[in-house]
Amino acid sequence: MIWNQEYETMPREDLEKLQLRRLQDLTTRMYARVAPYRVKMDAAGVKPGDIQSLADIKKLPFTTKNDLRDNYPFGLFTVPMEQVVRVHASSGTTGKPTVVGYTKRDISTWAELMARALSCGGVRPGDMVHNAYGYGLFTGGLGAHYGAENLGATVIPISGGNTKRQILIMQDFGSTVLLATPSYALNLADTMADMGIDPATIKLRVGIFGAEPWSENMREEVEKKLGLKAIDIYGLSEVMGPGVSMECIEAQNGMHIFEDHFLPEIIDPDTGEPLPFGETGELVFTTLTKEAFPLLRYRTKDITRLNAEPCICGRNFVRMDKVTGRTDDMLIIRGVNVFPSQVEHVLMGIEGVEPHYQIIVSREGSLDTMEVQVEVSDALFSDEVKNLEKLTRRIQAEIKDLIGSTCKITLVEPKTIQRSEGKAKRVIDNRKI
Amino acid sequence: MKVEQIAVFLENKSGRLAEVAAVLSEKGLNIRALSLADTADFGILRLIVDNTTRAVEVLKEKGFTVSRASVVAVEVADRPGGLADVLNTLNEAAINVEYMYAFVEKSGQNAVIIFRFDDPDAAIAVLLESGLRVLSSEQVCSL
After folding, report:
1. A54-68: per-residue pLDDT in tens?
2. Sequence-distant contacts of A30-34: CB under 8 A, at least 24 apart
3. Chain B contact for A385, CB < 8 A?
4. Given CB 3.0 to 4.6 Å as the disulfide criterion, which of A129, A172, A258, A320 pairs with A177?
Protein backbone atom coordinates (compact mmCIF):
# COMPACT_ATOMS: atom_id res chain seq x y z
CA MET A 1 0.00 0.00 0.00
CA ILE A 2 1.28 3.49 -0.84
CA TRP A 3 1.01 5.58 2.32
CA ASN A 4 1.31 9.01 0.73
CA GLN A 5 -0.04 8.75 -2.81
CA GLU A 6 0.52 12.44 -3.58
CA TYR A 7 4.25 12.53 -2.92
CA GLU A 8 5.27 8.95 -3.54
CA THR A 9 3.81 8.87 -7.04
CA MET A 10 4.49 12.51 -7.95
CA PRO A 11 5.64 12.94 -11.57
CA ARG A 12 9.43 13.43 -11.70
CA GLU A 13 9.09 16.91 -13.19
CA ASP A 14 6.97 18.14 -10.30
CA LEU A 15 9.18 16.35 -7.80
CA GLU A 16 12.26 18.11 -9.16
CA LYS A 17 10.57 21.50 -8.87
CA LEU A 18 9.68 20.71 -5.27
CA GLN A 19 13.23 19.56 -4.56
CA LEU A 20 14.71 22.76 -6.02
CA ARG A 21 12.40 24.98 -3.99
CA ARG A 22 13.28 23.08 -0.84
CA LEU A 23 16.99 23.11 -1.62
CA GLN A 24 16.95 26.88 -2.12
CA ASP A 25 15.11 27.34 1.15
CA LEU A 26 17.53 25.00 2.93
CA THR A 27 20.70 26.76 1.73
CA THR A 28 19.24 30.12 2.67
CA ARG A 29 18.38 28.90 6.15
CA MET A 30 21.72 27.26 6.73
CA TYR A 31 23.76 30.18 5.39
CA ALA A 32 21.89 32.61 7.60
CA ARG A 33 21.86 30.60 10.80
CA VAL A 34 24.90 28.31 11.07
CA ALA A 35 28.33 29.90 11.10
CA PRO A 36 30.33 26.78 10.11
CA TYR A 37 28.19 26.36 6.96
CA ARG A 38 28.50 30.07 6.14
CA VAL A 39 32.28 29.84 6.46
CA LYS A 40 32.43 26.79 4.20
CA MET A 41 30.11 28.29 1.60
CA ASP A 42 32.07 31.54 1.57
CA ALA A 43 35.29 29.57 1.16
CA ALA A 44 33.73 27.75 -1.80
CA GLY A 45 32.59 31.10 -3.22
CA VAL A 46 28.93 30.16 -3.32
CA LYS A 47 25.90 32.10 -2.06
CA PRO A 48 22.39 30.70 -1.51
CA GLY A 49 21.25 32.74 -4.53
CA ASP A 50 23.58 30.75 -6.80
CA ILE A 51 21.36 27.68 -6.54
CA GLN A 52 19.21 28.09 -9.65
CA SER A 53 18.81 24.44 -10.63
CA LEU A 54 19.24 21.05 -8.98
CA ALA A 55 22.51 20.63 -10.88
CA ASP A 56 23.84 23.68 -9.02
CA ILE A 57 24.07 21.51 -5.92
CA LYS A 58 27.56 20.56 -7.00
CA LYS A 59 28.67 24.12 -6.20
CA LEU A 60 27.90 23.52 -2.53
CA PRO A 61 30.56 22.17 -0.17
CA PHE A 62 30.32 18.65 1.26
CA THR A 63 29.68 17.91 4.91
CA THR A 64 31.61 15.08 6.53
CA LYS A 65 31.64 13.28 9.84
CA ASN A 66 34.65 15.43 10.77
CA ASP A 67 32.48 18.55 10.50
CA LEU A 68 30.07 16.91 12.92
CA ARG A 69 32.88 16.06 15.30
CA ASP A 70 34.38 19.55 15.11
CA ASN A 71 31.05 21.07 16.09
CA TYR A 72 30.23 18.54 18.82
CA PRO A 73 27.67 18.37 20.29
CA PHE A 74 25.15 20.94 19.01
CA GLY A 75 27.24 23.32 16.87
CA LEU A 76 25.51 22.50 13.57
CA PHE A 77 21.95 22.78 14.85
CA THR A 78 20.01 25.36 12.83
CA VAL A 79 17.42 26.22 15.49
CA PRO A 80 17.70 27.40 19.10
CA MET A 81 17.85 24.51 21.59
CA GLU A 82 14.38 25.45 22.93
CA GLN A 83 12.98 24.14 19.66
CA VAL A 84 14.89 20.86 19.79
CA VAL A 85 12.62 18.24 21.32
CA ARG A 86 14.87 15.22 21.01
CA VAL A 87 18.48 14.20 20.45
CA HIS A 88 19.94 10.89 19.32
CA ALA A 89 23.56 9.87 18.95
CA SER A 90 25.64 7.31 17.10
CA SER A 91 29.28 6.30 17.13
CA GLY A 92 31.84 8.91 16.25
CA THR A 93 35.22 7.92 14.94
CA THR A 94 36.90 8.48 18.30
CA GLY A 95 35.61 8.94 21.81
CA LYS A 96 32.86 11.42 21.00
CA PRO A 97 29.54 10.34 19.53
CA THR A 98 27.82 12.02 16.61
CA VAL A 99 24.82 13.95 17.94
CA VAL A 100 21.67 14.71 15.97
CA GLY A 101 18.63 16.79 16.95
CA TYR A 102 14.96 17.01 15.97
CA THR A 103 12.29 19.70 16.22
CA LYS A 104 8.64 18.76 16.74
CA ARG A 105 8.14 18.97 13.01
CA ASP A 106 11.22 16.80 12.35
CA ILE A 107 9.79 14.11 14.63
CA SER A 108 6.52 14.28 12.78
CA THR A 109 8.26 14.14 9.37
CA TRP A 110 10.21 11.13 10.56
CA ALA A 111 6.99 9.42 11.71
CA GLU A 112 5.50 10.15 8.28
CA LEU A 113 8.51 8.73 6.45
CA MET A 114 8.70 5.66 8.68
CA ALA A 115 4.98 5.07 8.13
CA ARG A 116 5.63 5.29 4.38
CA ALA A 117 8.57 2.92 4.76
CA LEU A 118 6.68 0.34 6.78
CA SER A 119 3.75 0.56 4.41
CA CYS A 120 6.15 0.14 1.46
CA GLY A 121 7.43 -3.01 3.17
CA GLY A 122 3.95 -4.45 3.48
CA VAL A 123 2.99 -3.43 7.02
CA ARG A 124 -0.68 -2.51 7.44
CA PRO A 125 -2.80 -0.81 10.08
CA GLY A 126 -3.77 -3.47 12.61
CA ASP A 127 -0.47 -5.33 12.34
CA MET A 128 1.23 -6.37 15.60
CA VAL A 129 4.68 -4.85 15.23
CA HIS A 130 7.43 -6.50 17.26
CA ASN A 131 10.06 -3.77 17.41
CA ALA A 132 13.35 -5.38 18.38
CA TYR A 133 15.49 -2.41 17.34
CA GLY A 134 17.29 -0.95 20.35
CA TYR A 135 15.53 1.90 22.11
CA GLY A 136 17.77 4.67 23.36
CA LEU A 137 20.33 6.94 21.79
CA PHE A 138 20.28 4.68 18.72
CA THR A 139 17.68 5.98 16.24
CA GLY A 140 16.39 2.51 15.32
CA GLY A 141 13.99 1.80 18.15
CA LEU A 142 12.19 5.12 18.55
CA GLY A 143 12.27 5.93 14.84
CA ALA A 144 10.48 2.72 13.92
CA HIS A 145 8.19 3.06 16.93
CA TYR A 146 6.73 6.44 15.95
CA GLY A 147 6.31 5.31 12.35
CA ALA A 148 4.43 2.15 13.31
CA GLU A 149 2.13 4.11 15.62
CA ASN A 150 1.53 6.69 12.92
CA LEU A 151 0.65 3.90 10.50
CA GLY A 152 -1.96 2.58 12.93
CA ALA A 153 -0.22 -0.65 13.86
CA THR A 154 0.13 -1.92 17.43
CA VAL A 155 3.70 -1.59 18.63
CA ILE A 156 5.40 -3.99 21.03
CA PRO A 157 8.41 -1.89 22.13
CA ILE A 158 10.45 -4.93 23.09
CA SER A 159 13.88 -3.50 22.12
CA GLY A 160 16.88 -5.86 21.88
CA GLY A 161 18.01 -8.79 24.01
CA ASN A 162 16.34 -11.44 26.19
CA THR A 163 15.70 -13.60 23.13
CA LYS A 164 13.66 -16.37 24.74
CA ARG A 165 11.23 -13.89 26.26
CA GLN A 166 10.94 -12.22 22.85
CA ILE A 167 9.83 -15.52 21.36
CA LEU A 168 7.27 -16.15 24.10
CA ILE A 169 5.83 -12.68 23.59
CA MET A 170 5.80 -13.23 19.84
CA GLN A 171 3.73 -16.37 20.38
CA ASP A 172 1.41 -14.96 23.04
CA PHE A 173 0.80 -11.53 21.48
CA GLY A 174 0.65 -12.84 17.93
CA SER A 175 3.35 -10.58 16.43
CA THR A 176 2.87 -10.26 12.67
CA VAL A 177 5.77 -7.93 11.82
CA LEU A 178 9.34 -8.17 13.05
CA LEU A 179 11.62 -5.12 13.06
CA ALA A 180 15.20 -6.10 13.82
CA THR A 181 18.72 -6.29 12.48
CA PRO A 182 18.93 -9.24 10.06
CA SER A 183 21.46 -10.99 12.28
CA TYR A 184 19.16 -10.70 15.27
CA ALA A 185 16.31 -12.11 13.17
CA LEU A 186 18.47 -15.15 12.43
CA ASN A 187 19.34 -15.41 16.09
CA LEU A 188 15.63 -15.44 16.93
CA ALA A 189 15.08 -18.18 14.36
CA ASP A 190 17.93 -20.29 15.75
CA THR A 191 16.73 -19.81 19.33
CA MET A 192 13.24 -20.84 18.26
CA ALA A 193 14.67 -24.03 16.80
CA ASP A 194 16.60 -24.68 20.04
CA MET A 195 13.40 -24.21 22.02
CA GLY A 196 11.63 -26.69 19.77
CA ILE A 197 9.19 -24.09 18.48
CA ASP A 198 7.82 -24.60 15.00
CA PRO A 199 7.98 -21.27 13.09
CA ALA A 200 4.60 -22.16 11.61
CA THR A 201 3.06 -21.50 15.03
CA ILE A 202 4.38 -17.93 14.90
CA LYS A 203 2.28 -15.41 12.99
CA LEU A 204 5.15 -13.34 11.55
CA ARG A 205 4.32 -12.26 8.02
CA VAL A 206 6.87 -9.53 7.29
CA GLY A 207 10.32 -8.70 8.61
CA ILE A 208 11.80 -5.22 8.16
CA PHE A 209 15.53 -5.64 8.52
CA GLY A 210 18.25 -3.03 8.48
CA ALA A 211 21.02 -1.20 10.35
CA GLU A 212 23.65 -3.61 9.05
CA PRO A 213 24.69 -5.09 5.71
CA TRP A 214 23.07 -8.36 4.65
CA SER A 215 23.07 -10.44 1.53
CA GLU A 216 20.49 -12.10 -0.69
CA ASN A 217 21.61 -15.42 0.81
CA MET A 218 20.75 -14.13 4.25
CA ARG A 219 17.41 -12.99 2.92
CA GLU A 220 16.62 -16.49 1.68
CA GLU A 221 17.75 -18.04 4.93
CA VAL A 222 15.77 -15.76 7.20
CA GLU A 223 12.66 -15.98 4.98
CA LYS A 224 12.82 -19.77 5.10
CA LYS A 225 13.55 -20.04 8.79
CA LEU A 226 10.94 -17.57 9.98
CA GLY A 227 8.36 -18.02 7.23
CA LEU A 228 8.10 -14.32 6.38
CA LYS A 229 8.95 -11.82 3.65
CA ALA A 230 12.23 -10.10 4.48
CA ILE A 231 12.40 -6.44 3.43
CA ASP A 232 15.44 -4.16 3.51
CA ILE A 233 15.37 -0.72 5.13
CA TYR A 234 18.11 1.91 5.06
CA GLY A 235 18.85 4.94 7.14
CA LEU A 236 21.54 6.66 9.09
CA SER A 237 21.15 8.80 12.15
CA GLU A 238 22.93 11.81 10.65
CA VAL A 239 20.37 12.00 7.85
CA MET A 240 17.39 11.11 10.07
CA GLY A 241 17.50 7.50 11.19
CA PRO A 242 15.66 4.53 9.70
CA GLY A 243 13.30 5.41 6.88
CA VAL A 244 15.60 7.27 4.50
CA SER A 245 14.95 4.59 1.91
CA MET A 246 12.95 1.41 1.79
CA GLU A 247 12.50 -1.65 -0.36
CA CYS A 248 8.97 -2.35 -1.59
CA ILE A 249 7.40 -5.73 -0.90
CA GLU A 250 6.24 -5.91 -4.52
CA ALA A 251 9.69 -5.87 -6.14
CA GLN A 252 12.10 -6.60 -3.24
CA ASN A 253 14.70 -5.06 -5.47
CA GLY A 254 16.37 -1.87 -4.27
CA MET A 255 15.28 0.74 -1.75
CA HIS A 256 13.14 3.71 -2.76
CA ILE A 257 14.67 6.94 -1.47
CA PHE A 258 12.08 9.38 -0.14
CA GLU A 259 13.33 12.04 -2.51
CA ASP A 260 10.89 14.74 -1.54
CA HIS A 261 12.87 14.91 1.74
CA PHE A 262 16.32 13.58 0.84
CA LEU A 263 18.22 14.52 -2.28
CA PRO A 264 20.67 11.76 -3.20
CA GLU A 265 23.85 12.06 -5.25
CA ILE A 266 26.48 9.51 -6.17
CA ILE A 267 30.02 10.84 -6.28
CA ASP A 268 33.47 9.53 -6.96
CA PRO A 269 34.84 9.12 -3.42
CA ASP A 270 38.35 10.10 -4.50
CA THR A 271 37.65 13.21 -6.52
CA GLY A 272 34.29 14.29 -5.07
CA GLU A 273 32.94 14.68 -8.62
CA PRO A 274 29.31 13.68 -9.21
CA LEU A 275 29.10 10.46 -11.23
CA PRO A 276 26.71 9.85 -14.12
CA PHE A 277 23.42 8.34 -13.05
CA GLY A 278 23.58 4.57 -12.59
CA GLU A 279 27.28 4.44 -11.71
CA THR A 280 28.52 2.98 -8.45
CA GLY A 281 30.07 5.40 -5.98
CA GLU A 282 29.67 7.11 -2.63
CA LEU A 283 26.16 8.04 -1.60
CA VAL A 284 25.68 11.69 -0.60
CA PHE A 285 22.52 13.11 0.96
CA THR A 286 21.12 16.60 1.33
CA THR A 287 18.23 16.75 3.78
CA LEU A 288 15.65 18.99 2.12
CA THR A 289 13.20 19.53 4.96
CA LYS A 290 14.93 18.90 8.25
CA GLU A 291 14.83 21.82 10.69
CA ALA A 292 17.03 21.12 13.70
CA PHE A 293 19.92 19.33 12.06
CA PRO A 294 19.86 19.64 8.29
CA LEU A 295 22.81 18.47 6.24
CA LEU A 296 24.19 19.78 2.98
CA ARG A 297 25.75 17.13 0.80
CA TYR A 298 26.57 14.76 3.63
CA ARG A 299 29.04 12.08 2.63
CA THR A 300 27.65 8.80 3.97
CA LYS A 301 30.75 6.80 3.00
CA ASP A 302 28.36 4.07 1.87
CA ILE A 303 29.02 2.67 -1.60
CA THR A 304 25.99 2.02 -3.76
CA ARG A 305 24.26 2.75 -7.07
CA LEU A 306 21.03 4.52 -7.97
CA ASN A 307 18.42 3.02 -10.27
CA ALA A 308 15.76 5.19 -11.94
CA GLU A 309 13.87 2.43 -13.73
CA PRO A 310 10.12 2.54 -13.08
CA CYS A 311 9.11 0.14 -10.31
CA ILE A 312 6.14 -2.20 -10.36
CA CYS A 313 5.01 -0.82 -7.01
CA GLY A 314 4.08 2.52 -8.62
CA ARG A 315 6.40 4.74 -6.62
CA ASN A 316 8.31 7.30 -8.65
CA PHE A 317 11.27 7.53 -6.33
CA VAL A 318 14.66 6.23 -7.45
CA ARG A 319 15.95 3.09 -5.82
CA MET A 320 19.36 2.51 -4.29
CA ASP A 321 21.03 -0.89 -4.36
CA LYS A 322 22.10 -2.63 -1.20
CA VAL A 323 25.15 -0.91 0.22
CA THR A 324 28.09 -2.91 -1.07
CA GLY A 325 30.89 -1.35 0.94
CA ARG A 326 32.32 1.63 2.76
CA THR A 327 34.89 4.22 1.79
CA ASP A 328 36.24 4.14 5.36
CA ASP A 329 36.95 1.34 7.80
CA MET A 330 33.69 1.50 9.72
CA LEU A 331 32.37 -1.88 10.81
CA ILE A 332 28.80 -2.70 11.64
CA ILE A 333 28.62 -5.30 14.36
CA ARG A 334 25.21 -6.44 15.56
CA GLY A 335 23.77 -3.18 14.26
CA VAL A 336 26.33 -1.06 16.10
CA ASN A 337 28.74 1.13 14.15
CA VAL A 338 32.30 0.53 15.21
CA PHE A 339 35.39 2.37 14.07
CA PRO A 340 38.80 0.75 14.57
CA SER A 341 39.96 4.19 15.76
CA GLN A 342 37.62 3.85 18.77
CA VAL A 343 39.28 0.60 19.77
CA GLU A 344 42.67 2.21 19.29
CA HIS A 345 41.59 5.13 21.47
CA VAL A 346 40.81 2.72 24.34
CA LEU A 347 44.04 0.75 23.92
CA MET A 348 46.21 3.84 23.84
CA GLY A 349 44.65 4.95 27.10
CA ILE A 350 46.00 1.87 28.87
CA GLU A 351 49.54 2.20 30.08
CA GLY A 352 51.95 -0.25 28.52
CA VAL A 353 49.70 -1.29 25.66
CA GLU A 354 51.54 -1.40 22.37
CA PRO A 355 49.89 0.22 19.39
CA HIS A 356 49.73 -3.16 17.72
CA TYR A 357 46.28 -4.61 17.61
CA GLN A 358 43.97 -6.28 15.20
CA ILE A 359 40.22 -6.59 15.07
CA ILE A 360 38.79 -9.86 13.84
CA VAL A 361 35.13 -9.94 12.98
CA SER A 362 33.39 -13.27 12.48
CA ARG A 363 29.92 -14.60 12.29
CA GLU A 364 29.25 -17.49 14.67
CA GLY A 365 25.90 -18.99 13.83
CA SER A 366 23.84 -15.89 13.26
CA LEU A 367 25.67 -13.51 15.57
CA ASP A 368 28.57 -11.25 14.71
CA THR A 369 31.48 -11.43 17.09
CA MET A 370 34.40 -9.08 17.44
CA GLU A 371 37.75 -10.14 18.77
CA VAL A 372 40.50 -7.66 19.56
CA GLN A 373 43.99 -9.09 19.57
CA VAL A 374 46.49 -7.10 21.59
CA GLU A 375 50.21 -7.74 21.70
CA VAL A 376 51.59 -8.31 25.18
CA SER A 377 54.52 -6.03 25.86
CA ASP A 378 57.03 -6.55 28.68
CA ALA A 379 55.32 -3.73 30.56
CA LEU A 380 51.97 -5.50 30.51
CA PHE A 381 53.15 -9.02 31.11
CA SER A 382 52.89 -10.65 34.49
CA ASP A 383 53.77 -14.14 35.70
CA GLU A 384 50.37 -14.25 37.39
CA VAL A 385 47.30 -15.28 35.43
CA LYS A 386 45.02 -13.04 37.48
CA ASN A 387 46.90 -9.91 36.43
CA LEU A 388 46.61 -10.73 32.73
CA GLU A 389 42.95 -11.58 33.14
CA LYS A 390 42.40 -8.30 34.96
CA LEU A 391 44.00 -6.53 32.01
CA THR A 392 41.79 -8.22 29.43
CA ARG A 393 38.69 -7.51 31.51
CA ARG A 394 39.67 -3.85 31.76
CA ILE A 395 40.18 -3.50 28.00
CA GLN A 396 36.89 -5.29 27.41
CA ALA A 397 34.99 -3.05 29.83
CA GLU A 398 36.45 0.15 28.38
CA ILE A 399 35.61 -0.88 24.82
CA LYS A 400 32.11 -1.80 25.92
CA ASP A 401 31.72 1.59 27.62
CA LEU A 402 32.70 3.38 24.45
CA ILE A 403 30.99 1.38 21.72
CA GLY A 404 28.32 -0.45 23.69
CA SER A 405 29.26 -3.85 22.38
CA THR A 406 31.09 -6.71 24.07
CA CYS A 407 34.14 -8.07 22.35
CA LYS A 408 36.59 -10.80 23.14
CA ILE A 409 40.11 -9.68 24.05
CA THR A 410 42.95 -12.01 23.15
CA LEU A 411 46.49 -11.37 24.25
CA VAL A 412 49.02 -12.42 21.67
CA GLU A 413 52.79 -12.62 21.55
CA PRO A 414 54.73 -9.58 20.42
CA LYS A 415 55.35 -9.15 16.70
CA THR A 416 52.71 -11.71 15.79
CA ILE A 417 50.30 -9.15 14.39
CA GLN A 418 51.28 -8.55 10.84
CA ARG A 419 53.11 -5.29 10.26
CA SER A 420 52.29 -3.71 6.98
CA GLU A 421 54.00 -1.20 4.80
CA GLY A 422 52.04 2.01 5.07
CA LYS A 423 48.50 1.61 6.27
CA ALA A 424 48.19 -1.09 8.92
CA LYS A 425 45.69 -3.82 8.34
CA ARG A 426 43.63 -3.34 11.46
CA VAL A 427 40.59 -5.34 10.56
CA ILE A 428 40.05 -8.85 9.34
CA ASP A 429 36.43 -9.38 8.46
CA ASN A 430 35.68 -13.07 8.09
CA ARG A 431 31.95 -12.61 7.65
CA LYS A 432 30.52 -13.83 4.40
CA ILE A 433 27.92 -11.20 3.75
CA MET B 1 67.36 -16.20 50.01
CA LYS B 2 65.06 -15.46 47.14
CA VAL B 3 65.27 -17.37 43.91
CA GLU B 4 64.89 -15.73 40.51
CA GLN B 5 62.25 -17.08 38.24
CA ILE B 6 61.46 -16.09 34.69
CA ALA B 7 58.03 -16.15 33.14
CA VAL B 8 57.37 -16.43 29.41
CA PHE B 9 54.12 -15.48 27.68
CA LEU B 10 52.87 -18.19 25.33
CA GLU B 11 49.99 -18.06 22.95
CA ASN B 12 47.98 -21.24 22.85
CA LYS B 13 49.38 -22.57 19.62
CA SER B 14 51.31 -25.67 18.94
CA GLY B 15 55.06 -25.64 19.10
CA ARG B 16 55.60 -22.58 21.26
CA LEU B 17 56.67 -24.53 24.34
CA ALA B 18 59.07 -26.59 22.25
CA GLU B 19 60.58 -23.38 20.88
CA VAL B 20 61.35 -22.07 24.36
CA ALA B 21 63.01 -25.36 25.26
CA ALA B 22 64.99 -25.32 22.01
CA VAL B 23 66.22 -21.74 22.53
CA LEU B 24 67.44 -22.57 26.03
CA SER B 25 69.04 -25.83 24.99
CA GLU B 26 70.89 -24.19 22.08
CA LYS B 27 72.54 -21.80 24.51
CA GLY B 28 73.34 -24.56 26.97
CA LEU B 29 70.97 -23.29 29.62
CA ASN B 30 69.60 -25.84 32.04
CA ILE B 31 66.04 -25.80 33.34
CA ARG B 32 65.88 -26.63 37.05
CA ALA B 33 62.13 -26.38 37.55
CA LEU B 34 59.13 -25.30 35.58
CA SER B 35 55.40 -24.93 35.67
CA LEU B 36 52.88 -23.94 33.04
CA ALA B 37 49.74 -22.01 33.87
CA ASP B 38 47.23 -22.18 31.10
CA THR B 39 43.96 -20.41 30.40
CA ALA B 40 41.66 -20.82 27.41
CA ASP B 41 43.62 -18.24 25.44
CA PHE B 42 47.21 -18.16 26.63
CA GLY B 43 49.78 -19.81 28.83
CA ILE B 44 52.43 -18.55 31.22
CA LEU B 45 55.54 -20.68 31.44
CA ARG B 46 57.52 -20.20 34.65
CA LEU B 47 61.08 -21.42 34.74
CA ILE B 48 64.00 -21.56 37.07
CA VAL B 49 67.23 -21.85 35.10
CA ASP B 50 70.88 -21.93 36.00
CA ASN B 51 71.54 -18.52 34.39
CA THR B 52 68.53 -16.24 34.59
CA THR B 53 70.08 -13.16 33.01
CA ARG B 54 71.32 -15.09 29.99
CA ALA B 55 68.02 -16.92 29.60
CA VAL B 56 66.05 -13.65 29.60
CA GLU B 57 68.44 -12.25 27.03
CA VAL B 58 68.19 -15.14 24.59
CA LEU B 59 64.42 -15.46 24.91
CA LYS B 60 63.95 -11.75 24.27
CA GLU B 61 66.18 -11.99 21.24
CA LYS B 62 63.80 -14.61 19.92
CA GLY B 63 60.87 -12.25 20.43
CA PHE B 64 59.35 -13.73 23.56
CA THR B 65 57.78 -11.57 26.23
CA VAL B 66 59.64 -12.35 29.43
CA SER B 67 59.41 -11.11 32.98
CA ARG B 68 61.41 -11.83 36.12
CA ALA B 69 60.05 -12.40 39.59
CA SER B 70 61.38 -13.46 42.94
CA VAL B 71 60.11 -16.74 44.28
CA VAL B 72 60.95 -18.75 47.41
CA ALA B 73 62.27 -22.31 47.33
CA VAL B 74 61.60 -24.44 50.38
CA GLU B 75 63.07 -27.86 50.96
CA VAL B 76 60.82 -30.39 52.59
CA ALA B 77 61.22 -34.05 53.42
CA ASP B 78 59.82 -36.24 50.64
CA ARG B 79 57.22 -37.95 52.83
CA PRO B 80 53.47 -37.73 53.38
CA GLY B 81 52.67 -34.52 55.21
CA GLY B 82 55.80 -32.66 54.08
CA LEU B 83 53.87 -30.10 52.07
CA ALA B 84 51.03 -29.88 54.60
CA ASP B 85 53.47 -28.74 57.30
CA VAL B 86 54.75 -25.88 55.18
CA LEU B 87 51.28 -24.75 54.14
CA ASN B 88 50.06 -24.85 57.75
CA THR B 89 52.91 -22.64 58.82
CA LEU B 90 52.10 -20.12 56.08
CA ASN B 91 48.40 -20.27 56.82
CA GLU B 92 48.90 -19.59 60.52
CA ALA B 93 50.97 -16.54 59.65
CA ALA B 94 48.22 -15.40 57.21
CA ILE B 95 50.58 -15.47 54.24
CA ASN B 96 48.88 -15.84 50.90
CA VAL B 97 50.32 -18.09 48.20
CA GLU B 98 49.87 -16.76 44.65
CA TYR B 99 50.92 -20.03 43.09
CA MET B 100 53.36 -22.87 43.70
CA TYR B 101 54.96 -25.87 42.04
CA ALA B 102 57.33 -28.58 43.21
CA PHE B 103 60.03 -31.00 42.14
CA VAL B 104 61.90 -33.82 43.82
CA GLU B 105 65.65 -33.60 44.32
CA LYS B 106 67.85 -36.07 42.47
CA SER B 107 68.75 -37.86 45.68
CA GLY B 108 65.08 -38.58 46.21
CA GLN B 109 65.33 -37.62 49.86
CA ASN B 110 63.76 -34.20 49.63
CA ALA B 111 61.32 -32.24 47.58
CA VAL B 112 61.66 -28.57 46.70
CA ILE B 113 58.58 -26.37 46.63
CA ILE B 114 58.67 -23.11 44.73
CA PHE B 115 56.32 -20.45 46.09
CA ARG B 116 55.24 -17.16 44.60
CA PHE B 117 54.20 -14.73 47.37
CA ASP B 118 53.08 -11.13 47.33
CA ASP B 119 55.58 -10.41 50.06
CA PRO B 120 58.43 -12.93 49.77
CA ASP B 121 60.51 -11.35 52.56
CA ALA B 122 57.76 -11.75 55.14
CA ALA B 123 57.21 -15.33 53.99
CA ILE B 124 60.91 -16.19 54.26
CA ALA B 125 61.01 -14.84 57.81
CA VAL B 126 58.07 -17.04 58.81
CA LEU B 127 59.51 -20.12 57.12
CA LEU B 128 62.94 -19.72 58.70
CA GLU B 129 61.42 -19.11 62.10
CA SER B 130 59.57 -22.39 61.93
CA GLY B 131 62.83 -24.17 61.15
CA LEU B 132 62.24 -24.88 57.46
CA ARG B 133 65.09 -24.82 54.98
CA VAL B 134 64.87 -22.02 52.44
CA LEU B 135 67.18 -22.45 49.46
CA SER B 136 69.19 -19.81 47.62
CA SER B 137 69.45 -19.61 43.82
CA GLU B 138 72.83 -21.35 43.88
CA GLN B 139 71.46 -24.14 46.02
CA VAL B 140 68.49 -24.69 43.72
CA CYS B 141 70.76 -24.80 40.70
CA SER B 142 73.23 -27.20 42.24
CA LEU B 143 70.71 -29.76 43.44
Report:
1. 999 999 999 999 999
2. A30/A78, A30/A294, A30/A296, A33/A78, A33/A79, A34/A76, A34/A77, A34/A78
3. yes
4. A129
